[in-house]
Amino acid sequence: MDTIVIANWKMYKTGAEAAAFVKKLQVPPKKVRAFIAPAFTAIASAAAAAKGSSIVIGAQDIHDAEEGAFTGAVSARMVLEAGAKFVILGHSERRRLFQESDALIQKKVGRALSSGLLPVLCVGESQEERESGKTAEVLKRQIGACLSGIKPSDIILAYEPVWAIGTGKTATPEMAEEAHLLCRGFLAQLWGAPAAKKIPILYGGSVTPETAPALLKQGNVNGALVGGASLDPQKFSQILQGAVS
Ligand code: PGA
To answer: Which atom of ligand 1 is nearest to the CA of 88?
Structure first.
């Protein structure tokens, strides 16, 4: 499968900054796909700038309802209209800072799929959970709950150990591969092995141009979800260029 590298811009970059970034990005090598998730307000200008290129633009969140009286919220249909093709769901910052539960994330996954958005479901253990040997249990619970009642579908899974996000501490390639194998096993329990084999599993957490190549060489690391290093067009281009397996 192609290697997918997603830029998660979080609350950085206006529409003008997003468009300028997209124009600066080098064309990724064959079999490497560049995805970018700008803030809601920058999706349309990023999508316009990416037109005619292979860069895929997405959103960082959606509301789980189709529409309604939800002040400040943005729906799947709205981000689709702006040019989003995928949506990041269940990011640990949404779980921690916005109190998103597995049950809510499951609804959002369903909403994304029924609306025609590709969900990028994030899972991952905290430092404390890893230290107490609970990594497998946490991944199983998150994957089981966030995909409960959802038929085998095209999704992307992102393994993002919470202790590695924005901390400069990257999981070693071996640790990532081990966790990705666990994730694929839990997907297989839910959806069967043939379907699980087809799901790209990305690693996220302090990925840099230096750490990406070794991580992406692992058999079950099918791409990366990049925060900090994705804000710089040179660094993000470097990660893409080094992503050929
Ligand atoms: P980071 O963020 O690369 O800055 O650690 C990753 C993420 O939050 O997806």
So the answer is: 9
Atom of ligand 1 minimally distant from the CA of 93 = 8
Q: State pLDDT tens for residues 54-72.
A: 999 999 999 999 999 999 9
Instruction: Tell me how far the alpha carbon of residue 151 lies from the centroid of ligand 1, in angstroms.
Output: 29
pTM: 0.97
pLDDT digits (tens, 9 = 90+) for 22-45: 999 988 999 999 999 999 999 999
Answer whether 4's CB lies under 8 Å from 222's CB: yes
Q: Of 91, 93, 129, 177, which one is the catalytic site residue?
A: 91
pLDDT tens, residue by residue, 88-146: 999 999 999 999 999 999 999 999 999 999 999 999 999 999 999 999 999 999 999 99
Q: Is the pLDDT of residue 244 over 90?
A: no
Residues in contact with ligand 1 by the CB-under-6-Å rule are 8, 160, 165-166, 204-207, 225-229
Is 160 assigned a catalytic role?
yes
Of 123, 159, 165, 211, the residue with max ligand 1 atoms within 8 A of its CB, to mutate for a pocket test, comes to 165
